[in-house]
Amino acid sequence: MATPPATQSTTPDPDPAPAATLAPAASTSAAQTLPEPLWRESKVRNGDSLSLLLNRWGVSSRTVYQLEKSSGGRQLRKLIPGETIRALLDAEGELQQLVYAKSRLHSEHFVRNNGSFSHRTVVREADVLPTLRSGVIEDSLFLSGQRAQLPDRIIMELANIFGWDIDFIFDIREGDSFALIYEEKYLDGELLGSGNILAAKFVNRGKVYRAVRFEDQHGDAAYYSAEGISMRKAFLRAPLDVFRISSGFNLKRKHPIHKMIKAHRGVDYAAPTGTPVFAAGDGKVIESGFSSANGNYVFIKHGQTYITKYLHLHKRSVKTGDSVKQRQVIGSVGATGYATGPHLHYEFLVNGVHRNPRTVPLPQATPVPVEDQLAFERFATPLLQQLEPSAASSLEIASSELPESNRQ
């Protein structure tokens, strides 16, 4: 497992020096009557503007106007909550420097210079270290991932990578296992967050699934199996992330409202009202409307062979004729029409015939381009070897050894 760097980054700290080192020495009498130059800092909150923040500190509207009209000042006109504004005020309360920190890695610096403000952008680079984690399923993937010290975002991404092949609600079993290499980002020895999953393995009921993130010559990144087959199928196995199956595909089901045997030609995914519903694949919306039985519904046609249907939506986000991409939000879970509670009724049709969405074979997406296959093999082989039990005690690959196009 990778560890954070022992020494701070070689990139110099872009933040201005403390006020005491910037201010000229003052006489004893002046120091007794005038305040020392000081830095003020504030996190941007909803409704904040630059003028509102600086006016709180006694900075004049004229100075704010000069800042916004300076080179780079246009970015100061729309601050985003969570960003940071730092201002250096001199002994008379005049603004001398302003730092607009968009993130720990990106900041805009403004310095007073002969009555106006000069500007420079400072972008720092985090140290990106590959990190190995592994675990065994004891209950859910999420809880088991947390025990393996995986960030929540990485757990969700792991599920997304293998989600076309594994139903993480019904398919996983106690004793299944996973291993993955993902990026951790550090700045001056402090963990900032996680990056991409570089490679992953999941063992489900004895069957091994492997995936590697690879970026082709055109800069397009995707996850592929060890054989170079795309992990991404043409369709999602389930069109929403948070759910439980309340009613499966059953041609002899007793209808809960009508109390009679009526074929249930889809799968019901129970989820809270408002849960986003995704398009299962690229396609065109052929119907988006409302009926007393279906409530709000969306039907999508995918080429000449497939149609997917989404019923009982709370809201629809697309209209008839729209083109949609896979995982595009098309609506949200609701309980409109003949529904006993909030859920999505999802149907999958092949050549006009209803098929079980949970078991129907899903067509593959494109494999690694032919011209990139040798580069893929050279990149994937050492990563996948690190996921094997014999290599689990250490992670020998370093980020500097990765091809440049696959480090971002």
Automatic annotation (TrEMBL):
<keyword id="KW-0645">Protease</keyword>
<dbReference type="Pfam" id="PF19425">
    <property type="entry name" value="Csd3_N2"/>
</dbReference>
<dbReference type="Pfam" id="PF01551">
    <property type="entry name" value="Peptidase_M23"/>
</dbReference>
<dbReference type="InterPro" id="IPR050570">
    <property type="entry name" value="Cell_wall_metabolism_enzyme"/>
</dbReference>
<keyword id="KW-0378">Hydrolase</keyword>
<feature type="region of interest" description="Disordered">
    <location>
        <begin position="1"/>
        <end position="37"/>
    </location>
</feature>
<dbReference type="GO" id="GO:0004222">
    <property type="term" value="F:metalloendopeptidase activity"/>
</dbReference>
<keyword id="KW-0862">Zinc</keyword>
<dbReference type="InterPro" id="IPR011055">
    <property type="entry name" value="Dup_hybrid_motif"/>
</dbReference>
<dbReference type="GO" id="GO:0046872">
    <property type="term" value="F:metal ion binding"/>
</dbReference>
<protein>
    <submittedName>
        <fullName>Peptidase M23</fullName>
    </submittedName>
</protein>
<keyword id="KW-0482">Metalloprotease</keyword>
<dbReference type="Pfam" id="PF22310">
    <property type="entry name" value="NMB0315_dom_I"/>
</dbReference>
<keyword id="KW-0479">Metal-binding</keyword>
<feature type="domain" description="DD-carboxypeptidase/endopeptidase Mpg-like N-terminal">
    <location>
        <begin position="39"/>
        <end position="97"/>
    </location>
</feature>
<dbReference type="InterPro" id="IPR016047">
    <property type="entry name" value="M23ase_b-sheet_dom"/>
</dbReference>
<dbReference type="GO" id="GO:0030313">
    <property type="term" value="C:cell envelope"/>
</dbReference>
<feature type="domain" description="Csd3-like second N-terminal">
    <location>
        <begin position="134"/>
        <end position="250"/>
    </location>
</feature>
<feature type="compositionally biased region" description="Low complexity">
    <location>
        <begin position="1"/>
        <end position="35"/>
    </location>
</feature>
<dbReference type="GO" id="GO:0006508">
    <property type="term" value="P:proteolysis"/>
</dbReference>
<dbReference type="InterPro" id="IPR054512">
    <property type="entry name" value="NMB0315-like_N"/>
</dbReference>
<dbReference type="InterPro" id="IPR045834">
    <property type="entry name" value="Csd3_N2"/>
</dbReference>
<feature type="domain" description="M23ase beta-sheet core">
    <location>
        <begin position="263"/>
        <end position="357"/>
    </location>
</feature>
